[in-house]
Design a protein that fits this description.
The protein is mainly α. It has a domain of 239 residues. Helix content is 59%, strand content 3%. The chain has 17 helices and four strands. The strands form two sheets. A two-stranded antiparallel ribbon has the order 1-2. A two-stranded antiparallel ribbon has the order 3-4. The chain starts with a helix and ends in a 6-residue tail after the last helix. The model has no long low-confidence stretch (mean pLDDT 88).
């Protein structure tokens, strides 16, 4: 990945929110403070009108999955999965999840030194277990067949989530509890390690979904749609991303969902400007797996994030305008919709790594 790519992404997503905040009369000092720990923000009260409008938007976005659900029973199951043992290294992941989960949700004095740091081992265990399941079904997994690419996802993941932390400064939709005692360097260090597990978790879950033959076939033989291409169109997409960054900071109480859209547009637009194929190019041949499966992977990971977060000592809480009701764990019900475009964002960001498209293209379907 050349330096021009992150430079263009940075210019698109870092500067416009500052301009939007300044145009809205907000002081910029608090937005630039260090350490970058989000704090609770005062938000507008719950509104049934806003809730129903947003629910309608989510329902429309889910329509393709209704068509997918109707198609699944019409396909043959693909035969039973091959009889392979669960790999021994997978059991190490199971043990890590169980141990970290126990420490995260209990308050034993002997575990006090590590109770603030259970997020990372939990998700490392999750990544190993999901890869082990995929390996059991197909004989291969992202972790076992391409460990170098898997390792590359970790630093990229940290950078991607720090970007979301930056955008959250302007909307204040989540904040952290239990981290007040960290110094600035400690917070950045431990947060970066935790953030580094996000993309590996989502991409590993995505590959597991691809090991389910009926689901994969249901998504890979649909109507072809040739997406626009060319650097001019890509520049327009980048412009939309920049406008989205400006708008979410200028009107955060209304346009906060753009936090989950603007980065996706920025990555896709940047790839198009430089003449590179995007992660979603296969839809031109009727292969909708890159569009339909990543949101499911994002939602699966989201449910695990919120579950394990709910009783952990160091955790996050939400303050979402107008729709902050009907919680499942800490997350309001409609907030889970954000994990759908976030799954697409994870695949788009990971596609910046050379070889990711080939790694997924070579992954065998489940049997």
């Amino acid at each position: 990945m050349s330096l021009t790519v992150p430079a263009l992404l940075g210019a698109t997503l870092l500067l416009p929110p500052l301009v939007g905040a300044w145009a809205g009369g907000r002081p910029l000092g608090p937005l630039l403070q260090f350490p970058p720990v989000p704090t609770a923000a005062s938000q507008p009260d719950f509104s049934w009108t806003a809730f129903l409008v947003m629910a309608g938007v989510v329902a429309v976005a889910l329509l393709p999955y209704l068509a997918l659900a109707r198609r699944l029973p019409q396909l043959p199951p693909g035969g039973p999965p091959a009889r392979r043992p669960f790999p021994p290294w997978g059991w190490l992941g199971v043990g890590l999840v169980v141990a970290a989960w126990y420490v995260a949700w209990t308050r034993h004095p002997w575990a006090a030194p590590v109770q603030l740091h259970t997020f990372t081992p939990l998700w490392l265990g999750y990544i190993v277990v999901v890869n082990a399941w995929t390996h059991r079904r197909t004989g291969r997994s992202l972790l076992s067949r391409n460990p170098r690419l898997m390792l590359g996802l970790f630093p990229l993941s940290a950078a991607v989530w720090w970007l979301f932390e930056w955008l959250n400064r302007f909307v204040g939709n989540w904040h952290y509890r239990g981290v007040e005692g960290f110094t600035a360097p400690e917070y950045v260090f431990f947060a970066s390690i935790a953030f580094s597990t996000v993309l590996p978790a989502v991409l590993s879950t995505l590959e597991w979904l691809r090991s389910l033959p009926r689901l994969e076939r249901a998504c890979s033989d649909l109507w072809p749609v040739r997406p626009p291409s060319g650097w001019r169109f890509g520049a327009g997409v980048l412009g939309l991303a920049a406008v989205g960054g400006y708008a979410l900071a200028r009107w955060p109480g209304v346009l906060f969902p753009l936090v989950w859209v603007a980065p996706l547009l920025a990555v896709v637009g940047t790839q198009m400007v430089f003449g590179r194929a995007t992660a979603f190019a296969p839809v031109a041949s009727g292969d909708w797996r890159p569009l339909l499966l990543p949101p499911i992977a994002g939602l699966i990971c989201g449910l695990h994030w919120e579950l394990w977060n709910s009783a952990s000592l160091a955790h996050w809480e939400y303050t979402v305008p107008y729709v902050d009701r009907f919680h499942l764990f800490e997350m309001p019900a409609l907030g889970y919709a954000g994990y759908l475009p976030f799954g697409l964002q994870c695949l788009a960001a990971a596609s910046l790594l050379p070889g990711l498209d080939r790694a997924f293209a070579s992954a065998p379907a489940g049997r």
